[in-house]
Amino acid sequence: MSSSDNPSIRDDLSALFVADEERDPVKAAQREMKRPLPKRFYADVAVVPVEDAFGLALDGKPVRTPARQKLALPTVALAEAVASEWRGQGEHINPATMPLTRMANTALDGVAAQMEQVAGEIAKFAGSDLVCYRAGEPDALVAAQNAAWTPVLDFARDFLGARFNLAEGVMFVAQPEESVAAVARAIETEATRPDGAFRLTALYEMTALTGSVLIALALAQGAKKFEQGWAAAHVDEDHQIRVWGADAEAQARREVRLRDMRAAYEMYAALG
């Protein structure tokens, strides 16, 4: 990632931080375990000006993305958060512990070149949002879904002017065109901001990890605290845990998703 004179280090780091198309956290972890991690080759991590943005320097050498672009972050808060990941590395550089770095690379190398397509992918979730599909029983699950998801729908009504139809079970229910369009407009507004690539990256990550663009937007607009949003995305799973107990492998996957979700939330918040 740095402009080190050692090409093998540069190439190793670029390969490590190429954004994964496969979002299964277990498969991603398995790939990382097979991949030898490069040794940490730097001592100092500094936030430095990069044109009208902020970048990182490792022992004075600028950090670049896998596509060899300058790592240019729109706010000093985000740059400091990314720098903290680099400072926190031990003897080896482990990208699994650097989700903000991965997302910053994704924003610059991927999302920035296809803003319209990414915005469209996020908005698609409005047609089958998690919070619109309710259980008919047992009563405890019905109550938990209502408590967690009704405020999200209230947010959509009040903030977006959008109302959504509910369905019982998994049978598809069509949503009003004007409501889906309202979500699309909200996402397009995010995309038109100067830091739109970073906003879309964070929103896509939160949407994909929760299965709900409405939860993601509620978090982004401050209508939900992080813990509330995360809990809302896991009402069904938490109910199953209460009934049947926790599964170690499922819990490990959830911990990875939680780490990435928190990073996406922090990225959006750091944009100001």
TrEMBL record:
It holds the Pfam family ATP12. One of its GO terms (biological process) is proton-transporting ATP synthase complex assembly. It comes from the Bacteria. Keywords: Chaperone, Transit peptide. The keyword Transit peptide applies. Belongs to the ATP12 family. This is ATPase.
